[in-house]
């Protein structure tokens, strides 16, 4: 049952925003006919569904809020089931030697059980400490089983950073990396070196015991931030939503400065919302300044994203000082009325220090600031344009590579599986944004979250559609998930309070059943051993593959890149070429060019068995990278001699007789 039309208030801001959202979703639908891009195909439907559910929650007359709750014996038993299941994940990893599809299936069930407890446990049985313990333990087990089962490191950039760390450790000075941009942002490297010295452990273990442990523990900052805005149940839900996200998991596996930058970003977000919600002191602002300096000295991309967050907070301040939102209209039963916090000094300090540090940071024979501005200007002049979509994610590359060869149903489905968790959270975020734009609920803290999420979505989704990827949008997702998780929890809370029990149960059950598994099966969560190994490259290597890298370095003498002639460049697949070059085994290594149904024409090549069975990248005749399964005889030609092989990896060079 609904109110009469005359009783509706269509000019209320959240109502207008929901209606505009519906219209915008309809306008965006035709874009999917102009370009094939997963977010063009899906975001309009997500936006439309979220707006429709919000309008339904606003005007549905059924005010019954009685929801089904788990029986008390079940609620008391599930934590034990989850903890036992986490033990089973450890045993599975040890027995199977890797995180397999069975592992991810079990993990998805356990994650769903955690979300079900949060959503459906009665108030009497709800225990936030026990639930937070399950969330943190799940995050620890899910990440550290991957680190345990993987020889070497997971990812690409980590190999370069560990080379820097080893150089700093050996020379006991930052001058070891004075040639690199990280010379001006060395906090990550110094942290790992210090951990190794203090704990008296190898550098690899020091990385895991420092940054590796910080990553899963940092999700508690989401709880602390959200609990400043809503009750404990929804704060715990936001924590679980964030901890399960694929990109956050990825930076818990691929431990680089981005990982530590994310930790500082979460701390800044908490401190920022805190000063907006409590009677702050100079100590609170001092903490913000200290954290700002820490992130600037850790990672450039994280610094830029933090600047976006601070800019969003400043814009929120302006809106509430001179904008349309009056403090007299604030609903104190939702958010406590409080004068907007003046952030101009903090913003100016961050921008000033960032520009100063970047101006002194060496990068490609210029300063980091000059080089980045030069790249951005070049992009605007040469490649920017509407719907000039630049491929970025692995899923997009797979789709494009398979377009000419009639993609199978699985090939078409995998990109949507990778994005499904993000789309579910995006829908909840839209609902949360509509809730907080109500004049009686608008407040600087929640508007900061809304504006930060909106601006980040522009960098992540909109700019790449114009061919602008200079800001490395794939690095933004984990940071974006922080305001999205908080707003998403607020959005689900809104729907629970407004929709009829039947609709609420449907929404929550679908969310609990699909969201955890979708995030865990997404490629970012299993980069070391992809679930869809024929669609996604493996960003980790076996003992034999790592032994081959070391042996190639010994065999060739580990020459300096300037000593290698162009015809002596080593060619293999991507990403294997990155570990050979970044470890210094053979600096001049690149991706091999293998024409479709043809053979490579290179003098020095490396083949590994993974190239013939799983997804690896090679360049085609036009120089474009695509997934291709390549047998050894397509790389090593009859005129080649085999100079090294260990059963999994073979290196071929010109035969002396030729």
Characterization of the model:
59% of the residues lie in helices and 5% in strands. It is mainly alpha-helical. The chain has 2 domains: 62-328 and 339-382 and 410-525, no CATH class; 543-654, no CATH class. The strands form 3 sheets. The chain has a 5-stranded mixed β-sheet. β8 (640-645) and β9 form a beta hairpin. This is Glycosyltransferase RgtA/B/C/D-like domain-containing protein. The chain crosses the membrane at residues 12-32, 38-57, 78-96, 102-120, 132-154, 206-230, 250-273, 285-301, 307-328, 340-360, 416-437, 449-472, 478-496, 503-523. Keywords: Membrane, Transmembrane, Transmembrane helix.
- Uncertain spans, ≥5 residues at pLDDT below 50? 1-10, 326-333, 391-404
| Mass-distribution shape | globular
Helix- and strand-based class?
Answer: mainly alpha
Q: Could you describe the largest sheet, including whether it forms a barrel?
A: 5 strands, mixed
Number of distinct helices: 24
Query: Whole-number average pLDDT?
Result: 88
Helix content: 55-70%
Portion of residues in beta strands equals: 5-15%
What is the end-to-end distance? 86 Å
């Amino acid at each position: 049952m609904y109110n009469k039309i005359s009783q509706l208030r269509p000019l209320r801001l959240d109502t207008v925003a929901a209606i505009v959202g519906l219209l915008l979703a309809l306008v965006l639908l035709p874009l999917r006919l102009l370009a094939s891009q997963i977010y063009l195909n899906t975001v309009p439907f997500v936006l439309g569904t979220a707006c429709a559910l919000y309008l339904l929650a606003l005007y549905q007359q059924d005010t019954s809020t009685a929801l089904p709750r788990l029986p008390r014996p079940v609620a008391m038993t599930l934590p034990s089931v989850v903890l036992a299941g986490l033990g089973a994940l450890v045993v599975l990893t040890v027995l199977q030697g890797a995180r397999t599809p069975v592992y991810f299936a079990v993990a998805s069930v356990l994650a769903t059980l955690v979300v079900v407890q949060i959503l459906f446990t009665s108030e009497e049985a709800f225990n936030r400490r026990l639930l937070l313990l399950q969330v943190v333990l799940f995050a620890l087990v899910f990440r550290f089983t991957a680190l345990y089962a993987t020889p070497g490191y997971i990812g690409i950039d980590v190999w370069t950073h560990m080379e820097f760390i080893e150089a700093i450790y050996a020379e006991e000075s930052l001058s070891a990396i004075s040639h690199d941009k990280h010379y001006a942002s060395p906090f990550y490297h110094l942290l790992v070196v210090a951990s190794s010295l203090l704990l008296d452990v190898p550098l690899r273990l020091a990385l895991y015991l420092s940054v590796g442990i910080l990553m899963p523990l940092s999700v508690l900052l989401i709880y602390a931030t959200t609990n400043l805005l809503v009750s404990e149940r929804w704060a715990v839900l936001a924590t679980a939503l964030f901890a399960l996200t694929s990109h956050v998991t990825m930076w818990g596996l691929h431990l680089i400065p981005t990982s530590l930058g994310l930790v500082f970003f979460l701390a800044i977000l908490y401190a920022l919302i805190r000063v907006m919600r409590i009677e702050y002191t100079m100590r609170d602002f001092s903490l913000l300044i200290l954290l700002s300096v820490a992130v600037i000295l850790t990672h450039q991309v994280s610094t830029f994203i933090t600047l976006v967050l601070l800019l969003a907070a400043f814009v929120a301040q302006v809106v509430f000082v001179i904008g349309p939102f009056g403090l007299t209209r604030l609903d104190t039963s939702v958010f406590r009325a409080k004068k907007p916090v003046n952030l101009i000094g903090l913003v100016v300090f961050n921008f000033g220090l960032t520009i100063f540090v970047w101006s002194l940071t060496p990068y490609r024979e210029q300063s980091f600031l000059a080089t980045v501005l030069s790249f951005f200007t070049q992009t605007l002049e040469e490649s920017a344009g509407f719907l000039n979509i630049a491929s970025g994610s692995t899923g997009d590359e797979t789709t494009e590579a398979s377009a000419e060869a009639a993609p199978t149903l699985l090939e078409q489905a995998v990109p949507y599986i990778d994005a499904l968790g993000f789309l579910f959270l995006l829908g909840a975020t839209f609902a949360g944004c509509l809730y907080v734009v109500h004049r009686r609920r608008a407040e600087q803290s929640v508007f900061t979250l809304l504006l930060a999420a909106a601006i980040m979505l522009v960098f992540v989704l909109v700019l790449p559609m114009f061919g602008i990827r200079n800001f490395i949008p794939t690095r933004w997702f984990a940071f974006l998930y922080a305001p999205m998780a908080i707003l998403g929890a607020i959005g689900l809370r809104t729907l629970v309070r407004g929709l009829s029990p039947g609709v609420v149960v449907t929404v929550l059950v679908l969310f609990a059943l699909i969201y955890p598994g979708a995030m865990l099966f997404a490629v970012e969560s299993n980069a070391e051993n992809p679930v869809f190994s024929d669609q996604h490259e493996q960003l980790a290597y076996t003992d034999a593959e790592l032994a081959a890298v070391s042996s190639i370095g010994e065999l060739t003498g580990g020459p300096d890149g300037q000593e290698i002639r162009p015809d002596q460049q080593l060619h293999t697949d991507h990403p294997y070429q990155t570990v050979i070059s970044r470890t210094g085994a053979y600096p001049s290594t690149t991706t091999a060019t293998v024409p479709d149904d043809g053979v490579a024409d290179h003098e020095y090549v490396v083949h590994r068995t993974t190239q013939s069975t799983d997804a690896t990248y090679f360049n085609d005749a036009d120089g474009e990278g695509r997934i291709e399964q390549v047998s050894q005889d397509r790389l090593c030609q009859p005129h080649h001699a085999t100079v090294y092989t260990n059963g999994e990896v073979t290196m071929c060079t010109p035969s002396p007789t030729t």
